[in-house]
Structure formats: structure tokens, C-alpha cells
């Protein structure tokens, strides 16, 4: 089990240190072979944060102690253990820890951590017990770990907290009431692509999340439906309506998915229906991944020509490939430049382009772009002759954007709410659905 | 360096550096650097002309970026341009960039070399220095090729400034170290040596580093530096602390120079010139005296500088190893340091004492500090100092204090650091064996050792115990008793079980009389440990069990039961299973007689060098070599060089390089250079005598042969190869060290003139000595050869008769039967004839007899004697004074196995001697 948890800033200074088990503490002998007894905190700083070569593995083993780390901007979270633990569990916990902290005080930064360290220790006491992860559901935690200071609680409230924390549905408390029953559903997808210069797709996948925000009274039972191929095919076989037959063509094949703990997995296994009692507030209902029939929102066509040893001509065309009525936003194309660039001239039809020396790239930004359009940039790069014989590696051109549809083709078919005890029905709930497709690693070789 | 004026401040650089320092993260730093690089690239773009200042600034920035660990692949051209600037700061930055960044890039190197050449030939000393520093910093082969010829000229030129001379000397040193073949000193040698007389102390200091390095390679060429160095040293040592002004460091005059001078002197043997030597001894005494004076300052630098000189002087004294007075004084001085509160001093003192302990003059003086050293071993905080203390104890150990030292080391072992335990164990084992007066003490010590530090006792140690116990009848009973008692401890180490198993198996009967250690008790005791042991130990125990069956038949059934059990006879380990099966069968089938023959007591082991000594040497890695071995390494180089010179002809050098000298000497691969008197008989002769085997006095064997092994024991083998012509002879003596330890202070003395022999023989190596012999007149006594050397700590002394006999100077004379008998009759005076009748020692083989007579050096005359069984020989002995003709007649009697030998010669003593010599041969 987890022996301790440390949070470091970028300099390797410890911001938070919480030790759950003594075995990790002072028994470490530094890997440099010295005889000095050095503590685990230092070992991680020396061997990972300040390592000569950047450490890429998220798990580091130093002197028979394992360090699992995740990095959020400049902050390192490291879980330390001497035992042979389930690494996936530790990382799940670390990610959850990040989510919880974000839910409590926003962005994870050195400043925020310093300002909230009492809160963080409180949270750590609650979500890890002797190194075993406990309930880390933000909604539940927020009921008894607050930032408002100590609130005197009545006996009733205390017993409620106890029953809720120890009960079957740990993620939702009873007796929630809203005047307006509202429900927000976001389908967030990120599309990843690697394409050859000739336009051949070398690899592509979409990883998506269904994020919900629910403000519902009582203990409602929800049912979520989407155009999952298996479900649609099953219904198609039943041959009930034309509708299902029509939407069958638009069904998508989900490669794998994971659910929030509130989803009844037994029902998903037997009927492939997603039914659940939602937590209150914001949560991630499911995560999924698809690799087939992905709609690629943009196509990048590069053209690079070397003119002698000291000049390079680059022309890049981007084409948007979705319904003309939709608008893509925040488009950014990043064209890498050789390391011996000594000057750049850029001409572009649309948006703004600039050579960023500090990043060794030309960055072309377009605020908005409608579907089925195309735009072009051309640049002349002057090079300084060097005595280095190394050839330029030609890194791929990468792209960032945001589009208002799901590149995987996922559609929400329904989201039904039943609350038998209270007198509101499915129709009284106001439901909002939104699709956002973002670029993940979206690259084209040149 | 000239002060940086305001205009040279390079504000841009300062801003850039402070930007970098303020970067919050690595990513930010990389961004800032990328930006700066892009900026510099755009500035360096061909079409713009940059002024010197900005060029310098950008090159500086590039250098800084490079030093942060980023790749720089441009800007070299600009840096080279800076070299041709006339401004000091610009030139300096240019050189700095080049010495840090330029690798052997052919195109640029030419430009750079050109710029350096210009600066070297300029009259500006600062520029010359910059150029020299650049050459030294780059120090590549290309640089050496280009400038190795130029720099010595600058170094010795009369008009060169002192500062340039300094730089030139150090630059040359660097080039010499990288490519010694390119730096040819030849013509400059004497002038470089004379730099030791330079007025400027800085030049002397720089030059001496160069000379030390050069003289290590060619000591002979730089021999003259010894006297100069001595006089320089005496001037420094005798100067008052204020005389040298700039070169006085915390009241110590020129400490660095003194140290270097002393180190240079360590490259040479003590000066032969009495005056020089006297002066040097005086210097060393002064240094030792100064150490006694109260410190002039309380600053640590003062004492450091003073002690540095002192330690260097002491190592010189140790190196000379010829001044008992100085050695003892040095030892006393070190003794004072042993209790100094400065840890480093204690360490150094212990280390130097280790070498002092091996010198015969100071060994006793070192021994007086035994209490302090033991105390250091116990109380010292620093592990490295404790290690040195242990080394010193080992070095100072001899018969008188062995018991005390071994006891102390044993008691220390219980608390010793893990890192040095194994070494300590080996040392204790060696000392206990080497200085054991009674072997029961030895057995006690080793068993104790196994008890205390069983894990660190290597195989060799317990093998050795068993070897010794088996070879010494007097301790066997005691050993068995002690082992038996030791095994009774509830938890004993596996090594103890091994020793116990072996010894009880061999000598258990010696203690079986006591009812407390009856055979069955012994067996049960051993078997109780069986299950806790590893496979090899179990195998050993099984062998012990079968020996028990032989020793004590009453245990047979019990042991057979054990062998028959499934855990033995069906053991998954093949070795154990096989032993169990075989032993079981052996015990049940074989009669007691057979069993007794098979399991007879182990014969004594042949004496050989203790394997643990070899182990200890191996153990001493590069980190832990004592000074002793360091010196060994240092001399090794010289030895190799010398060896090449001495091995004049190919045959001898071939002998020198083969690992087993005896085989080669006997085989004589290169064809033996035999005397004219015994043509082609050499190899046959050798065969004859190798059958005879080695007898104690090798002398007689050489009457009839010239090559072979004169002497051999377990340490040393002396081989001989000799050739004679007329009254002259030359003898090559090969001293072969059969051990893996070096012999030190190896000397031979001879009442015949001989070249001195190398004073040191490496383990396993061979040293050659040449003796030229001239026969002045006839003689009967052979010259005596006295050999002295140190093996380990003990002085070995050996006196041998050199096999030079009168017959070696025979010139064979061919003559007909008629002539022979005429001469025979001429030598008819009674005193001219010597006759002996003796019994044959060897088989009467005609061919062998012929070979022997040929080996004698006379001509064997056929068809002279009417009786074909008889042999007649004739020859002339060549001495400087006269020639002595000799005739010989040998009449074998096959029935009686007797010979009659008659020798007639013109001189009566010769006849007698020849008769004596030959009588022993047949």
C-alpha cells in the first residue's frame, strides 16, 4: 500500500509531505552509494526531479522503494511505497487526488497548494487511510471537508454523514432538493492523428469523456443511451422501427470504456444499458476510446522545398472537413523550423502567423473557420550555414483546434430521469447537451 | 589580466545571464536560449559586418549557452576571427571559445593554427601566453604536431619573458603527456635542465614539473638535474622566510617548489657525488629540524605547507633507504603525527610508516609505536585511517610482536567495518601462519578467526589451516581437540564445520580415547550440523563419514544408516547422491584392508607459497594499494626498459620473458652457445643429467656441462648458461623468482668481478646477471656466490659454489695414437700423474661416457688405446699465465663396475684436481 505522499515544486522543494507508513522514511540509502542515510524525499528529488537526463518513466525504483509520480504544470505529486502495490491503483488514486484538489481550489499550482495546505492535509487524511485509498468522491467530501471553517453540526447531520460515508451509495447524500431540476451533459473528445506527407493516415484515435453536471432532487435513477453499435444492432435485429434502422448506419464502435462508480455494471453487462444514480454536481460519467470511422476535422497539406544550403521554402494548406454550418475555433498550426534558422518571412491569407524563435517554430493562428474551407500559409526560412553535418530531423507539423461536434460520431440518444418518490418526471428536467471536439496530438509529417 | 574597462562590460551578456538565472523552470530556460540563439544567428548572417565588441559579446553568449549543456554548431568562424583582433579581451574570448569548443575539425584547425603561430611569433608576451594556454588546453595531437618544435625554442630562448617561459614549460609538459613521440627534447635537454638555475622562481616551478615528467622517461639524459635540484633545494631550505618575498606562503619559503624538487629527486638513486649527497642530507635534516620548531603561525595553511614539504622529504628518505639516521628521525617525526589531532596528518603518518616498516633500518623504530597504532585502530573515527592503522600493524609485525598484533587485530575484527573485514581476515591468517612459533597457537588463532568473522573467511584461509595441520604431526591431536570443542558451540559457522569435518575425519582417532569425544559422539556432533550446511560442505561431511568408518569400525552401522537414508541416497543433488551411493557400497563391499588403503591418511601437502598471500595481493585493488606496491608499479616500468637493453642476444631475452625459466633453460630453444671444446654435445649432456635429478650440491653436475639449473628451492631458482673460449669465460646467471611476491634488496657478492644485479625481483619474474671470467692460473677452489634478498620481511641468505672448474678452460687437442703415447711417456714424473680407482655411480653406457668426456672439454681420441673399451682424451688448459697440457685415460671394468682413471698433465696440481673432479662424475 502507499507508504507516503509528497508534493514537490519544480525546484524539488517539498510542499506537502504525508507519511502513512514508517517503512519508507529513513531507511533509504541513496542510490549514489554513499553511506549517508538519506530520506525518501531527497532520493526522489535527486534521482527524478533533478536527474541529469529527464526521467520519462512515471515509476522509479530507488533503493527498493517505488516512486509513482504525476506532474501537473510545475508540481510533482509522488506516491512512495516499499511494497509491491498495484501501480494502476496508485495512478488512479493520484489522478483522483488531482481532481479533488482542482475541485476544491482550482488550478494546481505552487501558490494554490501553499495557500491551501491545511485543506490538503485534511483531504489526505480522509482519502488515504494507512495507505489504503478511501472514498475520494468530491461531492461526498465536500459535505464534511469545507473551506468555511468549522461548522457546528447537529446530531442529525452527523449521523447523516456517517450513514452516507459508510452506506451503499457513498457518492450521493439523501435529501437534496432543487427548485429547478437541471442536467448538463458534455461530450468532450480529443482526436489524435499522425498523417504522412502524402495524406495517408498512419494512426488515429479519439479518446472521449462524458462529463455531467446534475442538479436533481432526491435520489433519481438515470438512464443514458447513445449510438453504441452493439445496442443499435441488437435493436435493429428486433426490427422495431425505421428510426433505429436509420440511426444504425450512424452507430459507432467503442473500443473500450470505463464508467464512474455510480454506474451499475451488472446492468451494463447484461443489457448494455447505462443506468445510475448520479452524484450531485460535476462528475465524469464515462470514458471511452474509438479508432474506427473517425471524422478528421482538418487536413494539413505541407510542401517543403530546400533552396540551396541557406534557404527553405515552406507552404502549408489546411482544409476544414465538416459541415459548412459549423465553426471551428482556436485554430493553431505549428510549423517547426530548422535549428539554424536565421530569419523568417511569412505570408498568410487568413489569421496571424509569427516566427517564435524561443520555440523554434512558426505559429499560425486563426480565430474561426467554417467547414469545407481552405487556407494557406507560405514562409521563406533563411538558414545559417553550420559546420555540423547533422541533417535536420524535420519534426511533424502539429495543429490545435476546437470543433462543436464529436469526431468519433458519438450521439446522445436519450438521458432519462426517474424519481419515483418525488413528484417530478422526466419531462420536468431541463437537459443540456453539448459536443466539443478538441485536438489531441494532431500531426502531419512534412 | 587587465581590468575590464567600462566599455567592455558587455551589458547584453549580463542581462542574458541574469535572465537565464531567473528562469523558473527548465522549459523557460530552453525557450530563452532558443530565442537568444535565433538572435545570434540573425546577427551572424553573412551579409552584416559586426564590430569586434558585438562579435565578442555573441561569442561569449554562445560559450555560456554551451557551458549550460546545449549544443552549439555555429559561431566558430566568428571566434576564429576574434583571434586576429588586437584587443586583449577579444583575443582572450576567442581563445577561450576555441579551447572549450573546437574539436579536431580540419578546416578550422588550420586557421586556428595560423592565428596561434602569429601570436607565438609576436613580441607581445600576453599574446604569446594566450596562444600557449590555448595549445595546452586543446592539447590535441594536431596541436602537438604543429607546435612541438616551436615551443622548446621559446622555452630556452634568452629573450623570452619569465611569464612566457612558465607557460611554455607547462604547455610543453601537456604536449609531452599527450604525444610523447612528437616532443623531441634531444638538443634542448641541457638548456631545459639549466632552467632550474633561473632567477625567477615561477619559471623554476614550471620547469621542474616538465623535467620530472621527462626524466621519468629518460632518466639518464636528465641526470645532471640532480645536483642542480639539490643546490636549489638547499638554497630554499636555508633561506629565511622573508627572503623569497612573493614565494613565501604563510612563512614557508616556496613550498610548492620544494615539494616538486623533492619529488624530482625521488626519480633518481642517491647522488654518488659525496658533496652533493652531503648537501642533500643536510637539507633533509634541516627540514626535519624545522618540523620540530614551534609554528610561526596558527593558520592551517602554514602547517599544511610545512607538512607537505616534510612528507615529501620523508618519502625521499624512504626512497633512498640508505641513511639509517634519517630514517629513524623520519620515523620519530611520524610517530609524533600519530597523535596529532588533524585526521589527515594521522592518515599520512600511518601510510608513510607502512613503507618505513619495510626498511631494515627503521623497522625497529617503527615497532616502538605499536601501542599508538593499536590505539588508533581502536579509537579512530575515520574508517580510512583505521584501515591504514591495520596496514601498518601488518607491516610492522615480526616474530617478537606477532602474538600481540594478531590478538589486537582479532579483537578489532569483531567491530571492524564490513568493507575491510575480509582483508583483515587474510592479514590475520597470514601473520598467524608466518610468525607461528608453536602451531597450537596458530590453530587457536585461525579457529578464533573463523568464529569471529566466519563470513569473511575465504576458502583459501581454511584450506591453508588444513594444509598446515596435515603437514605437522605435532598439532594434529591438538587441532582435533580444539575443533571438536569449537563445534560444540550451538551456532557455528559453516567454515568451522568444513574445517571440523576434515580434521575430525583425518585425525578423529587421536581424541577418540576420551569418552567425552568417543567416535559416536564425534559423528553425532558433525551430523547435527549437516542439515544446516550448503551442498559443498555436505559433500565434505559425507567424505568425513566414510573416513570415520575406516577409523572407527564401531560407527559403521550408524553411518551406513545415514548414508542409506533417502535424503542422501536419493538426494536431488547429483554430487551428494553419488557420494552417498559410492561410500555406502565401499563400506559394505570392501574389506577393512581395502578401506584402510583407500582412506589412508592424507599425505603431507607439498610446501608452496601460501595461497592466501596471493589472495591478499589480489584483494588490494587500485584503491587500497600500499605505498610498497605503488613503488613496485613505478619501478616496473624502468625494469622493462632495462630488461630490453640487457637481453643482448635473442636467446637470453627469450628466456627472460618465459614464465617458467627452468623449462626453458633446460630446453634451450634458441640453440646453446657451447664452447668449442664440446661441439654439439650440449643438449645430449643435459638429457643425461636431468635423469640424475637435482641433488643438493649442483656444483658437481656442471663439471661436464655448461647450462642448467644450479640451485632451486621453493623461492628461487638459479639457472646458468656459460661459454668459455681459451682462458676467458662468460657466465649468465638467471635468478628466477618462483613466488608471486617480489624480492627486495636483492644483492649478490662474488669473489670474482661481476656486474651488479637488479636489486628487485618481481614475483614470477627473472633477472639476469653476467659474470666475466678470466683464468689467470690453475686453481682448485671454485668461486663462491653469496646471495641476499628480502622475501616478505625476512632476509634470505644463500651461498653457492659457482660451477667454474679448471676443465672449463680446456682446448681440445687432436692427436694420433703415436703422438699420444709419446707425450704420455714424457709426463712420467710421479707427481705429474694422478690415478683413482672407483666404483661406478651410474650405469656404464658407452655413449653416456663419451658425452660426458666431451663435456669435459678435452678431445676424445678414437683408435688410440689398444683396448677399445678404454677412453683416452687430450687437451690443453689455457690460463693467462701458462698452458697446461693434459692427457686422460679412463678404463672401465664392466664386470666389477669399477673405473680406473689416470690423468697426466704438465702441472701436478692440475692432474690432482682433474682427477678429483672426474671421479665424482661416472
From TrEMBL, chain A:
CDD domains: AP-2_Mu2_Cterm, AP2_Mu_N. Keywords: Cell membrane, Coated pit, Endocytosis, Lipid-binding, Membrane, Protein transport, Transport. Residues 180-445 form the MHD domain. The keyword Cell membrane applies. PROSITE patterns: CLAT_ADAPTOR_M_1, CLAT_ADAPTOR_M_2, MHD. A 1,2-diacyl-sn-glycero-3-phospho-(1D-myo-inositol-3,4,5-trisphosphate) binds at residues 352, 354, 356, 365, 367. GO terms for cellular component: clathrin adaptor complex; clathrin-coated pit; plasma membrane. It is found in: Cell membrane; Membrane, Coated pit. It comes from the Eukaryota. GO terms for biological process: endocytosis; intracellular protein transport; Wnt signaling pathway. One of its GO terms (molecular function) is lipid binding. Component of the adaptor complexes which link clathrin to receptors in coated vesicles. Clathrin-associated protein complexes are believed to interact with the cytoplasmic tails of membrane proteins, leading to their selection and concentration. AP50 is a subunit of the plasma membrane adaptor. The complex binds polyphosphoinositide-containing lipids. PANTHER family: AP COMPLEX SUBUNIT MU. Adaptor protein complex 2 (AP-2) is a heterotetramer composed of two large adaptins (alpha-type subunit and beta-type subunit), a medium adaptin (mu-type subunit) and a small adaptin (sigma-type subunit). Belongs to the adaptor complexes medium subunit family. This is Adaptor related protein complex 2 subunit mu 1b. It comes from Cyprinus carpio carpio. The lineage of its organism: Eukaryota, Metazoa, Chordata, Craniata, Vertebrata.
TrEMBL record, chain B:
GO terms for cellular component: AP-2 adaptor complex. It is a peripheral membrane protein. One of its GO terms (biological process) is clathrin-dependent endocytosis. It comes from the Eukaryota. A 1,2-diacyl-sn-glycero-3-phospho-(1D-myo-inositol-3,4,5-trisphosphate) binds at residues 11-12, 43, 53, 57-61. Keywords: Cell membrane, Coated pit, Endocytosis, Membrane, Protein transport, Transport. Residues 700-803 form the Clathrin adaptor alpha/beta/gamma-adaptin appendage Ig-like subdomain domain. It is found in: Cell membrane; Membrane, Coated pit. SMART domains: Alpha_adaptinC2. SUPFAM superfamilies: ARM repeat, Clathrin adaptor appendage domain, Subdomain of clathrin and coatomer appendage domain. The keyword Lipid metabolism does not apply. Residues 624-668 are annotated as: Disordered. Pfam families: Adaptin_N, Alpha_adaptin_C, Alpha_adaptinC2. Its main location: membrane. Residues 649-661 have a biased composition (Polar residues). One of its GO terms (molecular function) is clathrin adaptor activity. The keyword Protein transport applies. Belongs to the adaptor complexes large subunit family. PANTHER family: ADAPTIN, ALPHA/GAMMA/EPSILON. Component of the adaptor protein complex 2 (AP-2). Adaptor protein complexes function in protein transport via transport vesicles in different membrane traffic pathways. Adaptor protein complexes are vesicle coat components and appear to be involved in cargo selection and vesicle formation. AP-2 is involved in clathrin-dependent endocytosis in which cargo proteins are incorporated into vesicles surrounded by clathrin (clathrin-coated vesicles, CCVs) which are destined for fusion with the early endosome. Adaptor protein complex 2 (AP-2) is a heterotetramer composed of two large adaptins (alpha-type subunit AP2A1 or AP2A2 and beta-type subunit AP2B1), a medium adaptin (mu-type subunit AP2M1) and a small adaptin (sigma-type subunit AP2S1). This is AP-2 complex subunit alpha. It comes from Cyprinus carpio carpio. The lineage of its organism: Eukaryota, Metazoa, Chordata, Craniata, Vertebrata.
Amino acid at each position: 500500500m502507499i507508504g507516503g505522499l509528497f508534493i514537490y515544486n519544480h525546484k524539488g522543494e517539498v510542499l506537502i509531505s504525508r507519511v502513512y507508513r514508517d517503512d519508507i522514511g529513513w531507511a533509504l540509502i541513496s542510490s549514489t552509494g554513499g553511506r549517508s542515510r538519506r530520506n525518501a524525499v531527497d532520493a526522489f528529488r535527486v534521482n527524478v526531479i533533478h536527474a541529469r537526463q529527464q526521467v520519462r518513466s512515471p515509476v522509479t525504483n530507488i533503493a527498493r522503494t517505488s516512486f509513482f509520480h504525476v506532474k501537473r504544470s510545475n508540481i510533482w505529486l509522488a506516491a512512495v511505497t516499499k511494497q509491491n502495490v498495484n501501480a494502476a491503483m496508485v495512478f488512479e488514486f493520484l489522478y483522483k487526488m488531482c481532481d479533488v484538489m482542482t475541485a476544491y481550489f482550482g488550478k494546481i499550482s505552487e501558490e494554490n497548494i501553499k495557500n491551501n495546505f491545511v485543506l490538503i492535509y485534511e483531504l489526505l487524511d480522509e482519502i488515504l487511510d494507512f495507505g489504503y485509498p478511501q472514498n475520494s468522491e468530491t461531492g461526498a467530501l465536500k459535505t464534511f471537508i469545507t473551506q468555511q471553517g468549522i461548522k457546528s453540526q447537529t446530531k442529525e447531520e452527523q449521523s447523516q454523514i456517517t450513514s452516507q460515508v459508510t452506506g451503499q451509495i457513498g457518492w450521493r447524500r439523501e435529501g437534496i432538493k432543487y427548485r429547478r431540476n437541471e442536467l448538463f451533459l458534455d461530450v468532450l473528445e480529443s482526436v489524435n492523428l499522425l498523417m504522412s506527407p502524402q495524406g495517408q493516415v498512419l494512426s488515429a484515435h479519439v479518446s472521449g469523456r462524458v462529463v455531467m453536471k446534475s442538479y436533481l432532487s432526491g435520489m433519481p435513477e438515470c438512464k443514458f443511451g447513445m449510438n453504441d453499435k452493439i445496442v443499435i444492432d441488437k435493436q435493429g435485429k428486433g426490427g422495431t422501427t425505421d428510426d433505429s434502422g436509420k440511426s444504425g448506419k450512424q452507430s459507432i464502435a467503442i473500443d473500450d470504456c470505463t464508467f464512474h462508480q455510480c454506474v451499475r455494471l451488472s446492468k451494463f453487462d447484461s443489457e448494455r444499458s447505462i443506468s445510475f444514480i448520479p452524484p450531485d454536481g460535476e462528475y465524469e460519467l464515462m470514458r471511452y476510446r474509438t479508432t474506427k470511422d473517425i471524422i478528421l476535422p482538418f487536413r494539413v497539406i505541407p510542401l517543403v522545398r530546400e533552396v540551396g544550403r541557406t534557404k527553405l521554402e515552406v507552404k502549408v494548406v489546411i482544409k476544414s472537413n465538416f459541415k459548412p454550418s459549423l465553426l471551428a475555433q482556436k485554430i493553431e498550426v505549428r510549423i517547426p523550423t530548422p535549428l539554424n534558422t536565421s530569419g523568417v518571412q511569412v505570408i498568410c491569407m487568413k489569421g496571424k502567423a509569427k516566427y517564435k524563435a524561443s520555440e523554434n517554430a512558426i505559429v499560425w493562428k486563426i480565430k474561426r473557420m467554417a467547414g469545407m474551407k481552405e487556407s494557406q500559409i507560405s514562409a521563406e526560412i533563411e538558414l545559417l550555414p553550420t559546420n555540423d553535418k547533422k541533417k535536420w530531423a524535420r519534426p511533424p507539423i502539429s495543429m490545435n483546434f476546437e470543433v462543436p461536434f464529436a469526431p468519433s460520431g458519438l450521439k446522445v440518444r436519450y438521458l432519462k430521469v426517474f424519481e419515483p418518490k418525488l413528484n417530478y418526471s422526466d419531462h420536468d428536467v431541463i437537459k443540456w447537451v453539448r459536443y466539443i471536439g478538441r485536438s489531441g496530438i494532431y500531426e502531419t509529417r512534412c | 589580466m587587465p581590468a575590464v574597462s567600462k566599455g567592455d562590460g558587455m551589458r547584453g551578456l549580463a542581462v542574458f545571464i541574469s535572465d537565464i538565472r531567473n528562469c523558473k523552470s527548465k522549459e523557460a530556460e530552453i525557450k530563452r536560449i532558443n530565442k537568444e540563439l535565433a538572435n545570434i544567428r540573425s546577427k551572424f548572417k553573412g551579409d552584416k559586418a559586426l564590430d569586434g565588441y558585438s562579435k565578442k559579446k555573441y561569442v561569449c553568449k554562445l560559450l555560456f549557452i554551451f557551458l549550460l549543456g546545449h549544443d552549439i554548431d555555429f559561431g566558430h568562424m566568428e571566434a576564429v576571427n576574434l583571434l586576429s583582433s588586437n584587443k586583449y579581451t577579444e583575443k582572450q574570448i576567442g581563445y577561450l571559445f576555441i579551447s572549450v569548443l573546437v574539436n579536431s575539425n580540419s578546416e578550422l584547425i588550420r586557421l586556428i593554427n595560423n592565428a596561434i603561430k602569429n601570436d607565438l611569433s609576436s613580441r607581445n608576451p600576453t599574446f604569446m601566453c594566450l596562444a600557449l594556454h590555448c595549445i595546452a588546453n586543446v592539447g590535441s595531437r594536431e596541436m602537438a604536431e604543429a607546435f612541438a618544435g616551436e615551443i622548446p625554442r621559446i622555452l630556452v630562448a634568452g629573450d623570452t619573458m619569465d611569464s612566457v617561459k612558465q607557460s611554455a614549460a607547462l604547455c610543453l609538459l601537456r604536449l609531452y603527456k599527450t604525444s610523447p613521440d612528437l616532443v623531441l627534447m634531444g638538443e634542448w635537454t641541457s638548456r631545459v635542465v639549466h632552467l632550474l638555475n633561473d632567477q625567477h622562481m615561477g619559471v623554476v616551478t614550471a620547469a621542474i614539473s616538465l623535467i620530472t615528467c621527462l626524466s621519468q622517461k629518460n632518466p639518464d639524459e636528465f641526470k645532471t638535474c640532480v645536483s642542480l635540484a639539490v643546490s636549489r633545494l638547499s638554497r630554499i631550505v636555508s633561506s629565511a622566510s622573508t627572503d623569497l618575498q612573493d614565494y613565501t606562503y604563510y612563512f614557508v619559503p616556496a613550498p610548492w617548489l620544494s615539494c616538486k624538487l623533492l619529488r624530482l629527486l625521488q626519480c633518481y638513486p642517491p647522488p654518488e657525488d659525496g658533496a652533493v649527497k652531503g648537501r642533500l642530507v643536510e637539507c633533509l635534516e634541516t627540514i626535519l629540524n624545522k618540523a620540530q620548531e614551534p609554528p610561526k603561525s596558527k593558520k592551517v595553511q602554514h602547517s599544511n605547507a610545512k607538512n607537505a614539504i616534510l612528507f615529501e622529504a620523508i618519502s625521499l628518505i624512504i626512497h633512498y633507504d640508505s641513511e639509517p639516521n634519517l630514517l629513524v628521525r623520519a620515523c620519530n617525526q611520524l610517530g609524533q603525527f600519530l597523535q596529532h589531532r588533524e585526521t589527515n596528518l594521522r592518515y599520512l603518518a600511518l601510510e608513510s610508516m607502512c613503507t618505513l616498516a619495510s626498511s631494515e633500518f627503521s623497522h625497529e623504530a617503527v615497532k616502538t609505536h605499536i601501542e599508538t597504532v593499536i590505539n588508533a585502530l581502536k579509537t579512530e573515527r575515520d574508517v580510512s585511517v583505521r584501515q591504514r592503522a591495520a596496514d601498518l600493524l601488518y607491516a610492522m609485525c615480526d616474530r617478537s610482536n606477532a602474538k600481540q598484533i594478531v590478538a589486537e587485530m582479532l579483537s578489532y575484527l569483531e567491530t571492524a567495518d564490513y568493507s575491510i573485514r575480509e582483508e583483515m581476515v587474510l592479514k590475520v591468517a597470514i601473520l598467524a601462519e608466518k610468525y607461528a612459533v608453536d602451531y597450537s597457537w596458530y590453530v587457536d588463532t585461525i579457529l578464533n578467526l573463523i568464529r569471529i568473522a566466519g563470513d569473511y573467511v575465504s576458502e583459501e584461509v581454511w584450506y591453508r589451516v588444513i594444509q598446515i595441520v596435515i603437514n605437522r604431526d605435532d598439532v594434529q591431536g591438538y587441532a582435533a581437540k580444539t575443533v571438536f570443542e569449537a563445534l560444540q558451540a550451538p551456532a557455528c559457522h559453516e567454515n568451522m564445520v568444513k574445517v571440523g569435518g576434515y580434521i575430525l575425519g583425518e585425525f578423529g582417532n587421536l581424541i577418540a580415547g576420551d569418552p567425552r569425544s568417543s567416535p559416536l559422539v564425534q559423528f553425532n556432533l558433525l551430523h547435527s550440523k549437516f542439515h544446516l550446511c550448503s551442498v559443498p560442505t555436505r559433500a565434505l561431511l559425507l567424505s568425513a563419514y566414510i573416513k570415520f568408518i575406516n577409523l572407527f569400525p564401531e560407527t559403521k552401522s550408524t553411518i551406513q544408516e545415514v548414508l542409506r537414508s533417502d535424503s542422501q541416497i536419493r538426494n536431488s543433488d547429483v554430487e551428494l547422491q553419488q557420494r552417498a551411493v559410492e561410500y555406502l557400497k565401499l563400506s559394505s563391499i570392501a574389506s577393512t584392508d581395502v578401506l584402510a588403503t583407500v582412506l589412508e591418511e592424507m599425505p603431507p601437502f607439498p610446501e608452496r607459497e601460501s595461497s592466501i598471500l596471493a589472495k591478499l595481493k589480489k584483494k588490494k585493488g587500485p584503491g587500497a594499494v600500499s605505498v610498497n606496491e605503488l613503488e613496485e608499479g613505478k619501478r616496473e616500468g624502468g625494469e622493462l626498459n632495462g630488461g630490453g637493453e640487457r637481453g643482448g642476444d635473442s636467446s637470453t631475452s627469450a628466456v627472460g620473458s618465459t614464465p617458467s625459466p627452468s623449462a626453458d633453460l633446460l630446453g634451450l630453444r634458441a640453440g646453446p652457445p657451447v664452447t668449442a671444446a664440446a661441439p654439439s654435445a650440449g643438449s645430449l649432456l643435459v638429457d643425461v643429467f636431468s635423469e640424475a635429478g637435482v641433488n643438493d650440491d649442483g656444483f658437481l653436475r656442471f663439471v661436464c656441462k655448461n647450462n642448467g639449473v644450479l640451485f632451486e628451492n621453493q623461492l628461487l631458482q638459479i639457472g646458468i648458461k656459460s661459454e668459455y673460449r681459451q682462458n676467458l669465460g662468460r657466465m649468465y646467471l638467471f635468478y628466477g623468482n618462483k613466488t608471486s611476491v617480489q624480492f627486495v634488496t636483492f644483492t649478490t657478492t662474488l669473489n670474482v668481478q661481476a656486474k651488479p644485479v637488479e636489486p628487485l625481483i618481481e614475483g614470477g619474474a627473472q633477472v639476469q646477471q653476467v659474470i666475466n671470467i678470466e683464468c689467470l692460473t690453475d686453481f682448485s677452489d671454485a668461486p663462491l656466490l653469496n646471495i641476499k634478498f628480502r622475501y616478505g620481511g625476512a632476509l634470505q641468505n644463500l651461498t653457492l659454489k659457482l660451477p667454474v672448474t679448471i676443465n672449463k678452460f680446456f682446448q681440445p687437442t687432436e692427436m694420433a695414437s703415436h703422438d699420444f703415447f709419446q707425450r704420455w711417456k714424457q709426463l712420467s714424473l710421479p707427481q705429474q700423474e694422478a690415478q683413482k680407482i672407483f666404483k661406478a655411480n651410474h650405469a656404464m653406457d658407452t655413449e653416456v661416457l663419451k658425452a660426458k668426456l666431451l663435456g669435459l672439454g678435452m678431445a676424445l681420441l678414437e683408435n688410440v688405446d689398444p683396448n677399445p673399451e678404454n677412453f683416452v682424451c687430450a687437451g690443453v688448459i689455457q690460463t693467462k699465465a701458462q698452458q697446461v697440457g693434459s692427457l686422460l685415460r679412463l678404463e672401465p671394468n664392466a664386470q666389477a663396475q669399477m673405473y680406473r682413471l689416470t690423468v697426466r698433465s704438465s702441472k701436478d696440481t692440475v692432474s690432482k684436481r682433474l682427477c678429483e673432479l672426474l671421479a665424482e662424475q661416472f
